[in-house]
Amino acid sequence: MAQQIKRNCSLHLVNTDRDCDTCPLPKKCIGDGLSKEQSDSISSLIKSRGPFQAGETIFRMEDPFKSIFAIQSGSVKIESSLDDGTPLIHGFYFDGELIGIEAIGDTRYQNDAVALENTWICELPFEQIESLCIKIPKLQHEILELLGKRIRYTNSTIVRGRYLSADKRFLLFLSDLYQRKGLVSTNGDRSVTLPMTKGDIAIHLGLRPESLSRALSKLQEEGLIRNRVREIEILGNDQEVFSCVWV
Amino acid sequence: MAQQIKRNCSLHLVNTDRDCDTCPLPKKCIGDGLSKEQSDSISSLIKSRGPFQAGETIFRMEDPFKSIFAIQSGSVKIESSLDDGTPLIHGFYFDGELIGIEAIGDTRYQNDAVALENTWICELPFEQIESLCIKIPKLQHEILELLGKRIRYTNSTIVRGRYLSADKRFLLFLSDLYQRKGLVSTNGDRSVTLPMTKGDIAIHLGLRPESLSRALSKLQEEGLIRNRVREIEILGNDQEVFSCVWV
DNA sequence: CGAATTGTTGAAACTTCTCAATCCGGGTGG
DNA sequence: CCACCCGGATTGAGAAGTTTCAACAATTCG
After folding, report:
1. Domain that holds residue B86
2. CA of B6: how far to CAs of A84, A140, B73, B92, B101, in Å?
3. Considering the domain boundaries, does residue B28 fall inside one?
4. Which of A242, B26, B158, B177 is most exposed, with the fewest beta carbons within 10 Å of its own?
5. Do B141 and A133 touch (CB under 8 A)?
């Protein structure tokens, strides 16, 4: 099944298992609700690429912007650096999510996109998508919507996060992760596997790795989470753990 | 002249004095380079509104999203708050800039937009803009471009700013302000009038008002700026003052 | 198994926050 | 015209949180 998706790489075929409207981030729902011909014309533009190994680059800062990408499977971190070399991680993206859209309207990508594990992506040549938008109003609407969604996402995570202490900032991150992975209010397995290092999470949250480590230890002592290698488990229900970071 | 712009409120007529491509933020260059008929069809959608007094609300969080707005004259702050009431300021916008675009694809605005001084705005009903985009590919491209620009803007200010100390964070803010107001590398008057309070700037930068005040005093002692009421002047050339926050 | 990376912990330094007092400037009203 | 008032801005001192630097443990990978 997963294999078929990769080979076929049709946006229309995938992602029927998630409700796009509730996702905080743009999902590759593009093409939902279109006619056969319309979704075919989208599918014909798409090129599948992969697999990328952990550490491999999908696009680089200096590369000319030509395409946006939908992650088919795996995960990706978006990073850049300050002039003095300080690394800066803009975000982590998972299967079903779009990357590269922050370069829309510019000539180059502003960041590097690096695979965190074995990753397959779909390339969507943006110029052609744009042309197609003229013919398919619904597609145009979806592109606009996902751009708006991305702006709102940044506001609700990074902007909001600035006002929170290290431990709450991590809980906000974790809450977002659970939502995006569809784990909110699930019974049974309440743990999430982290494809990125804790160090990367720290940088992404604007913290030193040591500070995050301490925050994690503190949250574990308080009995809110279990902190393991490449894995976090929340103990107790969402309400108990996340209430302090929910709106 | 300014009056004429207000009355006419044509996006095409205004903003011929600035180079859109170098603006870090979406400007109301919408409509540049279109045919007479095309720009007329845009102009016919536009409604001028104002004047808003300082403190008056242009749109509220709860309002249904219908329009984006171009600021004709004056300035606006975009704010919301955390659940505990902590105020949170997403940004300040000036004449020629667009607000409300972060609500695109959603049913409501996520923030309040409050005038900081006497302010005139142009309302652009978004549904109609969207329809027009189908007919005018160039307009579609411009809307996509400005949304991308907004994402990049947030990345280069708020995301980057998180990694900077209080005084550098302010310099980054100031540098952005000078760019947007077209004051970079001007000779002569090097001062900028602040329509917002220093307290608002502090919140926007993720600092306490006292912390910003200390940072300003420090920068003044170092001879980089002159700190006055509702006014900041940079002493020395852009290179000297802003180099530490430039990429 | 050893090397390299990642994660944790400790102690001291540093930055920012908090709370309180004071100052300043603009507006109001006598 | 001046005294008063009030919100914004500044300053001080101590508390709190984060960073830094250093050492070490745990994990992964060759």
Report:
1. 36-159
2. 45, 31, 8, 21, 21
3. no
4. B177
5. no
Q: What is the pLDDT of residues A43-91, one digit of tens each?
A: 888 899 979 999 999 999 999 999 999 999 999 999 998 888 889 999 9
Chain B environment of A147 (Cβ under 8 Å): 104-105, 144, 147-148, 151
User: Against a cut of 0.85, is the pTM above it?
Assistant: yes
Give the β-pairing of A75-81 and A112-115.
antiparallel
Residues B187 and B208 in one domain: yes
Residue A190 resides in a domain: yes
Shared domain for B54 and B130, answered yes or no, is yes
Give the residue from A159, A178, A200 where a domain finishes: A159
Q: B240: closest CA among B225, B218, B228, B221?
A: B225
B244 CB neighbour count, 10 Å cutoff: 16
Contact B100, B150 (CB under 8 A): no
- The 10 Å Cβ neighbour count of residue B84 is 7
CA separation for the pair B6, B4 (Å, rounded): 5
Domain count, chain B: 2
Interface residues for strand D (CB within 7 Å) are: A 165-167, 206-208, 210-211, 214-215, 229-230; B 197-200, 209-210, 212-214, 216-217, 227, 229-230
Domain boundary among A159, A191, A215: A159
**Which of B110, B138, B155 to mutate to test binding with chain A, by most A CBs within 10 Å of its CB?**
B155
The Cα of A3 is separated from the nearest Cα of chain B by a number of Å equal to: 33
